[in-house]
Amino acid sequence: MLQSLLPLGVALLGATSVLAQDPPTCGLDKKCPKETPCCSQYNQCGVGAFCLGGCDPRMSFSLDSCLPAPTCKDKTYKMDSLDRYKDISEYLGDPSTADWVGQGEPLIYNGNTLLTMPPKSVGTVLATTTYMWYGNVKARMKTSKGAGVVTAFILFSDVKDEIDYEWVGVDLNTVQTNYYFQGITDYTQSGNISVADSYNEFHDYEIQWTPDQITWLVDGKVGRVKKRADTWNATSNQWNFPQTPSRVQISLWPGGLETNAKGTIDWAGGKIDWNSDEIKKNGYYYATFGEIKVECYKTSSAPGTNKGISYSYSDISATNNTVVDGNKPTTIKSLLATGLDTTKGDPAKDKGNAAQSSAVYAVPGGGVGTGNVPGTDKNEGSDSGSGSSGSGSGSSTSASECAKTGFSQSCDGSSGQVNGNDAVRVSGLGASGLAAFISIAGLLLL
Ligand SMILES: *[C@@H]1O[C@H](CO)[C@@H](O)[C@H](O)[C@H]1NC(C)=O
Ligand SMILES: *[C@@H]1O[C@H](CO)[C@@H](O)[C@H](O)[C@H]1NC(C)=O
Ligand SMILES: *[C@@H]1O[C@H](CO)[C@@H](O)[C@H](O)[C@H]1NC(C)=O
């Protein structure tokens, strides 16, 4: 079915006009158009994977454009194999087929999963295929190191509630914690926890999340507590407290990429050195994950249940009383489908004519940061510091040979048969403090 993305292939062979447009962007005041109804976590409109994990119903064409989110499952993820990992270009929303989806270059080394970031790439991001609506999650891990290199372990909801652990690679004795409500950037809420040598030593980083409190624990010791009661926003009359089903997301991303906003680069400890000893020795930066354990919240009444198949939203306000734990299906038949038409492109039915589809935007690119990266004008030069990776990072695509402004040709210059490491990159978002990368990795592969 993916061969159907003919227009993209044609574009890569030279008809760049097809791709000369950036994917339509979306926001609270700018919903996606009907043809590309799903607003990805990188705030770009598309179909297929755009409608799965990270799809923001508030910014999409309609509340049901995004697919419902698979409910929480208790699970200990032994990170010693990639058997249960799929690239987002291969995933159609059924959590029985994969535990993790992502972009970039994860690999197995010594029984652990490494998230890698080769030179000039935008790193690697993995997210669980099921969502937690409160609960506990614990990661046994080691960070990366180096200026501009950011490791993240976060909970991230489709409406951009977020609970973070983040490490900047110039300070291996501190982990920064933060939380956000619906992506509202407020950098005054970060808090540091001391940790001994996050690069060389495994530590257990845990988030305990209830409707009333977030607790961050390192090696079993409480490092920080945030109570909902202390998050009242008198302007909006609501709690600025994470409260919606969230994926566990782990990532390694280049906060210090030179195209990022200055505030982001400063926060990340400076520009990335793609010639560092780390790169010379291994060929990439990496963070190491040994085990991740998810314990769903135990309650018999909402919020926080996990009785049904999926979570969806009944209202655009996307607060915890609008989350519906029900039995709506979570899958699509192809990367041309959306929540509005889940069977579009079904390879079983649609043989042959799918090429007419214009699904250029079927797989969202990983973006470096998603909206709450420091370094937007407001924040520039401020020392309020810690930013969120948001979704932090994305495809690992070697931007090296492809890094031109605007969309580039197929990077290997070959037949239009794009290999998994090729990328096109969109420029021009830097001004807003974001760098967006559109990955076409894998689009033409299958
Ligand atoms: C946390 O630590 C970093 C250095 O790693 C520092 O720049 C930042 O100001 C600290 N933030 C807080 C809230 O103390
Ligand atoms: C309170 O809510 C308003 C409206 O959503 C928002 O603009 C503002 O940033 C919030 N204040 C804080 C401190 O988060
Ligand atoms: C979530 O829902 C519970 C129960 O309905 C309520 O008491 C609580 O205040 C809500 N929390 C937030 C952060 O909205």
UniProtKB/TrEMBL annotation:
It holds the Pfam family Glyco_hydro_16. InterPro entries: Beta-glucanase-like, CHR-like, ConA-like_dom_sf, Glycosyl_Hydrlase_16. The keyword Glycosyltransferase applies. The active site is at E162 (nucleophile), E166 (proton donor). GO terms for molecular function: endochitinase activity; glycosyltransferase activity. It catalyses: Random endo-hydrolysis of N-acetyl-beta-D-glucosaminide (1->4)-beta-linkages in chitin and chitodextrins. It is a lipid-anchor; GPI-anchor. Residues 361-399 are annotated as: Disordered. GO terms for cellular component: fungal-type cell wall; side of membrane. It is an enzyme of class 3 (hydrolase). Keywords: Cell wall biogenesis/degradation, Glycoprotein, Glycosidase, Glycosyltransferase, GPI-anchor, Hydrolase, Lipoprotein, Membrane, Signal, Transferase. Its main location: membrane. Residues 373-386 have a biased composition (Low complexity). Residues 1-20 form the signal peptide. One of its GO terms (biological process) is carbohydrate metabolic process. Residues 89-276 form the GH16 domain. Dual chitinase/transglycosylase that plays a role in cell wall architecture. Chitinase and transglycosylase activities are coupled. Required for the polysaccharide cross-linking at the septa and the cell wall. More specifically, transfers chitin to 1,6-beta-glucan in the cell wall. This is Crh-like protein.
